[in-house]
Design a protein that fits this description.
Blueprint (H helix, E strand, L loop, with lengths): L21 E6 L4 E4 L1 H7 L3 H4 L13 H8 L5 E8 L5 E13 L2 E10 H19 L4 E6 L4 E4 L1 H6 L19 E2 L8 H11 L3 E8 L9 E11 L5 E10 L1 H19 L6 H12 L6 E6 L1 H4 L14 E5 L7 E5 L6 H8 L3 E3 L24 E9 L2 E10 L8 H38 L10 E8 L9 E8 L5 E8 L4 H18 L5 H15 L9 H4 L3 E8 L4 E7 L5 E3 L5 E3 L18 E4 L5 E5 L1 H4 L6 H12 L6 H10 L10 E8 L7 E6 L5 H16 L5 H18 L4 E7 L2 E8 L19 H8 L2 E6 L4 E8 L2
Antiparallel strand pairs: 1-2, 1-5, 3-4, 4-5, 6-7, 6-11, 8-9, 9-10, 10-11, 12-13, 12-17, 13-14, 15-16, 16-17, 18-27, 19-20, 20-21, 21-22, 22-25, 23-24, 23-26, 26-27, 28-29, 29-30, 30-32, 31-32
Helix pairs in contact: 7-8, 7-11, 8-11, 11-12, 12-13, 18-19, 19-20
Length: about 800
């Protein structure tokens, strides 16, 4: 289908051309001796009405004398005449008279056309002449071999004379030019070949190069190519239509650059990344190299220097990607353009002449290779009325200086980068504070225990995400037992870290009350729900919602481990043989919901079992689900004979590479059992006479353990505890002695009332027993059991 179906109506032949115009022949007396068919079509007179008759009869008005003058002229003459048509109309026509001399007889050929048609043709000619002589659109004609044939005035000006290129191939016009449009053949020869072969024009291709008339400045043209054919439809060649769109193209590039900058600069909340983003966006479209100089205080997240522009002790950022990023110290002398830009807060252009090294202006930068810049633009980085540093835009290969529009663009990019750097600085400061707060709230070290061997890892989330709310703890309990807990607060930042610290302290406090795991989580759930009420004024309610926690108690005497979970992944257990077991009990609801009760899970652990407590950051990732992560961790635990520190490293090495989206906390314990040689049990009937028997057995057991020097103190403590139990209990009393890092004395009975420490008056006959126990032991307390209670005391071993 033709692109221009009416193209056949476009005719550049003159209306007075003999193939189209009305023609007649007049003899020497002005009589019509010849009358053509076109003349009949124009005026309507048939030949028999006009032949042999005076031509003056065809004129409207008294113009006979003028007609005679036109016929007797010795050279062609043209005139505008009013002609009379057969139907009586008067037609204004353009008429040309051409004298003929043939065998001595004089004759005149008269050619006529409608004046309006003639004027239209003349306008077309004027248009063509304007395109050739006045248009800013470059027109160039090439032959079928792609050689220059002709160019209009615009092409002549760009080429500094088109005549010198006539007969040369197209590539000779702009030797270093290139097409930057990617939708057509890559070079001009292939473009011309395609147009000549198919006849289909190629429109709007962008071509970049340097015109011979302006070699110092790069231009961009929009080029279109059309095939030229003769009257028979045979190709004559083609012509190129080119329009210099340099300013429009650069304006579009500046706009697209600003759009990209808005999407990329400042999105990382990292000072170094933001500097690299500014360089990556600006190169090579605006500059060949971009350097960002910042004070160390800004990079570290602190306030920028005040009082004067930061011209000394700066760090220069190199590189457009994190892989090639590096820093180097730099400073500016007071007379340098960099110092001027920082002092005035305005951009400064330094157009160094070609071949002049630009490094002498920066004597503080050592080790940098000497490179030559055609132009440098220094733009201060200003945010919130504070100068953060300096951005340097350099051109090495591009000889064009930075123009006003490019300076404005560089300022806009620098403003975006400055805001991003300031936001990153503030975020770095807050992140560092949150990280310090979190680390200060986490245990600095876990106390050594006879019950378990411990190793742990804490991997904070990527800085762009923010500090999370993971916590873990090991809590020494009575009877050589230990409490183990891990938890996770939803969210990131200072509030999450503060909430984590408060909850960890609460868990530790409740654990020291010797509550079983389910009871502890129930009480903790009530406290979290109370904090999350809408009228809470502590600002931590949002972070408290969705808190998960797991609490476990391990008893090295019985090997029994009891745990309960509030929405937290259950522990993974690997026994001494390497067999890994996963809990079949689903965790209870997260803290703060108060919907379902929590249940205890009892496990009997063999000596040397490895138990993994972890947060979801260890097993869950955006790219993998939690089940795959648990399987990955369970596979690591099959190597449970390895040292715990090595197991921790193995577990974290399986995490997917890349930024960590959430905190990852891993707590590994290897269980130990206290043998019979370190535990002594004695069951006593509720008879006061048994107190002496308890003292005797205690003395004998301490002698066996080589702790005879504790006999007096231990006998006194045991005597008071057993006496108190026999007095108030109704069933048998159990005395247990445990030789651990300290001597543990425990007395259990079936009473559910706890004794209270009080100060006895001088005339009281009793009430001093627990006071003596408290004075002689380093710790003492009471814990409740399913059958009653246990009063315990710890005596330090010398």
């Amino acid at each position: 289908m033709d692109r221009f179906p009416n193209a056949a109506n476009v005719d550049f032949h003159s209306p007075l051309d003999l193939t189209k115009a009305a023609a007649a022949v007049l003899d020497a007396e002005g009589l019509v001796s010849g009358w053509g068919p076109a003349a009949q079509r124009l005026l309507g007179h048939p030949p028999e009405d006009v032949l042999g008759r005076p031509a003056a009869r065809l004129l409207a008005g008294a113009t006979g004398q003028r007609l005679s003058a036109l016929c007797t002229a010795h050279r062609p003459r043209s005139a505008v005449l009013d002609l009379r048509c057969q139907d009586g109309r008067v037609l204004r026509a353009a008429v040309t008279f051409s004298p003929l001399a043939h065998q001595g007889a004089a004759a005149t050929v008269v050619v006529a056309a409608e004046l309006e048609t003639q004027r239209g043709w003349e306008a077309q000619l004027a248009m063509l002449q304007g395109l050739a002589t006045e248009s800013s659109v470059g027109l160039t004609i090439f032959d079928t071999d792609g050689r220059v044939v002709w160019g209009n005035v615009s092409t002549d000006l760009e080429l500094a004379g088109v005549a010198q290129y006539v007969g040369l191939p197209a590539e000779a016009l702009f030797p270093e030019g290139e097409f930057i449009s990617r939708h057509h053949p890559p070079d001009e020869d292939q473009v011309m070949e395609q147009v000549l072969k198919t006849g289909e024009p190629i429109l709007g291709m962008h071509y970049r190069g340097r015109a011979p008339a302006d070699p110092g400045r790069e231009h961009v043209w929009s080029c279109s190519y059309y095939r030229l054919v003769d009257a028979r439809g045979e190709p004559l060649g083609l012509f190129e239509e080119s329009l210099d769109i340099t300013e429009r193209y650069r304006a579009q590039e500046r706009l697209s650059l600003l759009v990209r900058a808005g999407k990329r600069i400042g999105a990382s909340l990292d000072v170094r990344r933001t500097a690299a983003e500014l360089a990556d966006v600006s190169v090579p479209q605006l500059a060949d190299e971009v350097l960002v100089d910042l004070p160390p205080t800004v990079i570290e997240g602190r306030q920028p220097p005040t009082g004067s522009a930061p011209g000394h002790s700066l760090l220069r950022m190199h590189g457009r990607t994190p892989e090639e990023f590096r820093t180097s110290p730099v400073s500016y002398p007071p007379s340098s353009p960099q110092a001027l830009s920082l002092a005035t807060g305005r951009p400064v252009v330094d157009d160094s002449p070609p071949g002049t090294p630009d490094e002498p202006g920066e004597p503080g930068e050592r080790g940098a290779p000497a490179r030559h810049s055609h132009s440098c633009l220094f733009v201060p980085l200003v945010a919130r009325d504070a100068i953060l540093g300096l951005a340097t835009f350099r051109r090495h290969s591009n000889p064009d200086p930075f123009g006003p529009e490019e300076q404005t663009l560089a300022v806009e990019l620098s403003e975006r980068a400055a805001v991003g750097i300031d936001n990153a600085r503030r975020y770095t400061s807050q992140h560092s504070a949150a990280l310090v707060l979190q680390r200060s709230l986490l245990p600095q070290h876990l106390p050594e225990q006879s019950a378990v061997e411990v190793a742990y890892r804490y991997l904070p989330a990527d800085s762009r995400v923010g500090v999370g709310g993971d916590w873990f703890d090991l809590i020494p309990l009575s009877g050589a037992r230990v409490g183990l807990t891990v938890g996770d607060v939803v969210g990131h930042g200072v509030h999450a870290a503060a909430t984590m610290g408060r909850l960890r302290a609460t868990v530790r406090t409740l654990a020291l009350l010797d509550l079983d795991p389910a009871e502890l989580l129930t009480r903790l759930d009530g406290l979290v729900a109370q904090d999350a009420e809408p009228d809470g004024d502590d600002g931590l309610g949002d972070e408290a919602l969705g808190v998960t926690c797991l609490y476990a108690i391990y008893d090295p005497v019985s090997g029994r481990c009891v745990w309960a979970s509030a929405g937290h992944p259950p522990p993974i257990v690997a026994d001494a043989s390497g067999s890994v077991a996963l809990s079949a009990l689903a965790p209870g609801p997260p803290l703060g919901l108060g919907s379902l009760p929590y249940e205890n899970v009892d496990l009997n652990l063999s000596d040397g079992s490895v138990v993994a407590f972890f947060t979801d950051g260890v097993v869950e990732d955006r790219r993998t689900d939690i089940d795959s992560g648990i399987d990955r961790l369970a596979n690591v635990l099959t190597w449970q004979r390895c040292p715990l520190e090595e197991l921790c490293d193995r577990a974290l090495s399986t995490l997917p590479p890349g930024p960590q989206a959430d905190d990852a906390t891993l707590l590994l314990i290897r269980t130990r059992r206290l043998g019979c040689d370190r535990v002594a049990d004695l069951e006593l009937p509720p008879d006061p006479a048994m107190v002496a028997h308890a003292r005797t057995d205690t003395e004998r057991q301490l002698e066996t353990w080589g702790l005879s020097e504790l006999s007096f103190t231990a006998e006194l403590v045991v005597s008071e505890l057993v006496t108190n139990s026999i007095r108030y209990a109704t069933g048998p009393v159990l005395l247990r002695l445990i030789r651990d890092r300290s001597l543990l004395c425990e007395v259990s009975d079936n009473a559910h009332t706890a004794p209270h420490l009080r100060r006895a008056r001088r005339d009281d006959e009793g009430g001093r027993g627990l006071f003596l126990v408290a004075q002689m032991s380093q710790r003492w307390g009471t814990r409740y059991t399913a059958s009653g209670k246990t009063i315990w005391a710890e005596l330090p071993i010398p």
